[in-house]
Design brief:
The chain contains 21 helices and two strands. By secondary structure, it is mostly helical. The chain has one domain: Proton glutamate symport protein, CATH 1.10.3860.10. The radius of gyration is 24 Å and the shape is globular. It starts with a helix and ends with a helix. Bound molecules: aspartic acid. Aspartic acid binds next to α19 and α20.
């Protein structure tokens, strides 16, 4: 009999976690196949790698296609259906959580990199044969101002496809400008490809608050956004079944494509290990402690349920693309959908602890290589800009590498130095994205737990009101019962 029970347990475990298991197998098998194909010694051309990546690319395109409609509809319907004072409290708790965890991540990164000193013992000073050099043509102030400009898009339709970026240009006859005096350049702006997610989030929050305030009159629009968000989640439920295959091909192609493994274990090995150790300590140490303090529960059970989310984040290296799956995972954990649909899209956009930690470690590592003295003031400046850089980084692969330029600037290092860490960035990106999404999901649980008393109180008030004059239940409320 006990054998029978054990077998039933295993079968039910497999049934519940089949997709997660398959996705993890996809990541592991992709890694082995990638290594195997490299080991054949054949020089894979870019075209052949592209063919290999093709199924994974299709999977990624499907996920990306869901981001804008899901993000907007989730935030609008969640805020619209929450009591205004409640959404204020939930929003404030989420922001406090995001800021606390990001600051902890940056401080941990700085503590590790200044203790381990990977740049002191490394021989990576000679520039590796960089295939891509990132050049900087703006000041840090421009990057920060653009971040805030993008919060207020001038055209909401355009925000779905492009974001604003300052561009500095100079007159060919202006000798001073040619010499590199960025202050004398003409300041212009243009739009670059890629959704302005910050702008969409801000607009959706304001729209949600307005609909909530309008009451009965806004009901059709609220129902529309609610239905749209549910529809997106149903489509996510279908797309998710492609994740094992999707991540398998993405990981295989990525491993086939990289230049050199020796960089990983050689020159950049210690830097790589420092970031990895930081991510691990932050994900399973700091976040777990905060979780226990806030919820009085152990996080292990919840983290174990995030396998699917972590494997997808690792495979896609994008917290935005993983967002639909993160929301689905929170739904499965039984969290209040109004809170997860409010907190997760914002978290996926601005809360990137893994990225913040890596930005701080990388900047100080490069400074150590370049023998730049790090005063206390400079370390504080690195922490502040690393936090801002992680907020400004888009939830797409290697976005942190681009905003790193801002952090390097604070220690007077040239943007080109980013190429020093390029060789290992693709892999670190996957690990930091995993921590980014775990932090978002844990945040949703923490905020739900902290807001439970308020939710119950509002529900009780609503029920009392209902007992008075006849009150028709909205579709949203019906869904709850
Ligand atoms: N790929 C990361 C993310 O999507 C951002 C980064 O650190 O580059 O969360």
């Amino acid at each position: 009999m006990p054998l029978q029970i054990r077998r039933e347990g295993v079968v039910s475990f497999l049934r519940q976690n089949l997709l997660t298991l398959l996705t993890v197998i996809g990541v592991v098998a992709g890694t082995f196949l990638g290594w195997g194909l490299r080991a054949t010694g054949y020089e894979w051309t870019r075209r052949e790698v592209m063919y290999f990546q093709y199924p994974g690319e299709l999977f990624l395109r499907m996920l990306k296609c869901l981001i804008v409609p899901l993000l907007v509809s989730s935030i609008v319907s969640a805020i619209g259906s929450l009591d205004l004072s409640l959404s204020g409290k939930v929003g404030l708790r989420a922001i406090i959580y995001y800021m606390t965890t990001t600051v902890c991540a940056v401080m941990l990164g700085i503590a590790l990199v200044t203790t381990i000193k990977p740049g002191k013992s490394s021989e990576a000073f000679q520039q590796p044969n960089a295939t891509k050099i990132i050049t900087k043509d703006t000041l840090t102030a421009d990057t920060l101002l653009d971040l805030i400009r993008n919060v207020f898009p001038e055209n909401i339709v355009q925000a779905t496809i492009a974001s604003y970026r300052t561009r500095l240009t100079y007159d060919v006859n202006d000798t001073k400008a040619i010499k590199g005096h960025l202050e004398t350049y003409k300041i212009e702006g243009d739009y670059q490809k890629g959704s302005n997610v910050l702008g969409l989030v801000c607009f959706s929050i304001v729209l949600g608050i307005t609909l909530g305030k309008m009451g009965e009159q806004s009901r059709p629009l609220q129902n529309f956004f609610h239905a749209l968000s549910e529809a997106m989640m149903i489509i996510t439920g279908w797309v998710i079944w492609l994740s094992p295959l999707g991540v398998f091909f993405l990981v295989t192609a990525k491993i086939m494509e990289i230049d050199s493994f020796s960089e990983l274990v050689g020159r950049l090995g210690l830097y790589f290990m420092t970031v990895l150790l930081g991510l691990f300590l932050h994900g399973f140490g700091t976040l777990s402690i905060l979780f226990v303090i806030a919820t009085k529960k152990l996080p292990c059970r919840y983290i174990a349920k995030m396998g699917q989310v972590m494997a997808t984040a690792f495979g896609t290296a994008s917290s935005s693309a993983t967002m639909p799956i993160t929301i689905g995972c929170c739904d499965e954990m039984g969290l209040d959908p109004r809170i997860t649909r409010f907190v997760i899209p914002i978290g996926a956009t601005i809360n990137m602890d893994g990225t913040a930690l890596y930005e701080a470690v990388a900047a100080i590592f490069i400074a150590q290589l370049r023998k730049v003295e790090m005063s206390f003031g400079k370390i504080v400046a690195v922490s502040v800009t690393a936090t801002a850089a992680s907020i400004g980084a888009a939830g797409i692969p290697q976005a942190g590498l681009v905003t790193m330029v801002m952090v390097l600037d604070t220690v007077n290092l040239p943007a080109e130095d980013v190429s020093i860490i390029l060789a290992v960035d693709w892999l670190l990106d996957r690990f930091r994205t995993t921590i980014n999404v775990v932090c978002d999901a844990l945040g949703a649980i923490i905020v739900t737990s902290l807001s439970q008393a308020d939710i119950d109180k509002t529900r009780a008030v609503q029920n009392n009101d209902r007992e008075g004059p006849a009150h028709e239940l909205s579709d949203l409320e019906k869904g709850e019962h």
